[in-house]
Amino acid sequence: xSRFLGPLDSEGRVPSxxxxxxxxxxxxxxxxxxxxxxxSLPMRxxxxxxxxxxxxxxxxxxxxxxxxxxxxxxxxxxxxxMAASWETAWFPKPVExxxxxxxxxxxxxxxxxxxxxxxxxPAALLPxxxxxxxxxxxALRRIEFESGRxxxxxxxxxxxxxLVPFRDAVSTELERxxxxxxxxxxxxxxxxxxxxxxxx
Amino acid sequence: MPRLVHGSYRIRYELxxxxxxxxxxxxxxxxxxxxxxxxxxxxxxxxxFRVATFDLLGQxxxxxxxxxxxxxxxxxxxxxxxxxxxxxxxxxxxxxxxxLIALRxxxxxxxxxxxxxxxxxxxxxxxxxxxLGNALRTGLILGGTSYLxxxxxxxxxxxxxxxxxxxxxxxxxxxxxxxxxxxALQNLMESFLDFEPLTPRxxxxxxxxxxxxxxxxxxxxxxxxxxxxxEIADSSLVIIPKAYHAFTxxxxxxxxxxxxxxxxxxxxxxxxGNKAVWIAPEEPGGELAPFPAGYDHLRAIPIxxxxx
Lengths: 200, 308
Hints:
The structure holds two protein chains of two kinds. By secondary structure, chain A is mostly helical. Chain A has a single domain, classed as Ferritin (Up-down Bundle). In chain A, about 60% of the residues lie in helices and about 0% in strands. In chain B, strand 1 and strand 2 form a beta hairpin.
């Protein structure tokens, strides 16, 4: 087990089987967010949030498109089973303490997006000698950078005044989502020989 | 790696040295992690101390609360760590954000420590510091952790330290970038949004206190350390020559020597704070010199101090 992707080939590229599984996971996660943003777009909400939702939708779509093009794909027999477990994890879920609240759905979506944008750091898997000009390496760096920007909308919403009455429930749900997505990500990485689990 | 438990969070710490030795507890700055104290660990262990370091909540290998990090929780984490150290003498030191947490600890649990060393520290957010903090937070949001590091490196370290590293800054930044997550750093920064100045509470610090301030500290300049000197009864202010905000990284041998000498003086009953102002030597082991009498230590040019 290693903390980083590799071993790299002579041109500093990540092995194709690692590229395939990591890209599949990221496409699944960001694809789920894109789908859920797309379904939320017709909602009548405050103009500023409508604008942000639109931006988030297109940036998530860009991440998916980028990975489709930048990844060196290889057949992976385990992917259908793994993808099914990932997709199940992205289903909307009731937020404990907020059932029936009009904000429950946006909170569910924002906590999931926060956990994906904050908790998944694909660029941190790159070893120092990864080729910065390789499309996959470049894509991972861009996705991590963009995730940091996209995350700001979730932070603004989840820390915002409108959620002050539900702060404990929101924090608990967010921690739960982080733990859930951290585990999915760690399991995926372990399946390609990378360990990110902390000594606990 | 041992962990402390605070509610649902775990705090990673490291403790070395004989259990019956006086202990030094070192508290990280905002973008730091406990491995950055390794030179201090070695130096202080060699001088007969026990050394405890830890990652604050939101840093390194400690848990990173997802939405909010309260500074009270950091003080509680520090209290838990100090609770692991037994009943012997404990000296507490922290840099920048860590210095602030150390100050808060000394205000609330001063009876538990024998001495305090705030370094590159502050008790309040002056307009300059507030605006700098806001700009650094915006930098983090727009440019990520790497951009925040880009801003902090030239602000907090000298040309002499930076020059030989100019072509390998990425490797200098890498470990900090790897172990610190953007959202957690942002939460640490946003723990200042409801910050109340500590200045009115500083008088509660009764333990011997050595305040360390880099000569050229741009981020937390002399005036911020002066507040500590004036308000803490048994304090001295020691100016580190040719040093910037992050002198603990740049001048570790000198700083570790000053920490050890301070604790030795306190334990031997030699320490006298007297709210004096000193100039540290440039090398470890050198003599401290009193700031020249009659001159204003808050100025950058030699101006006679105004009569009291």
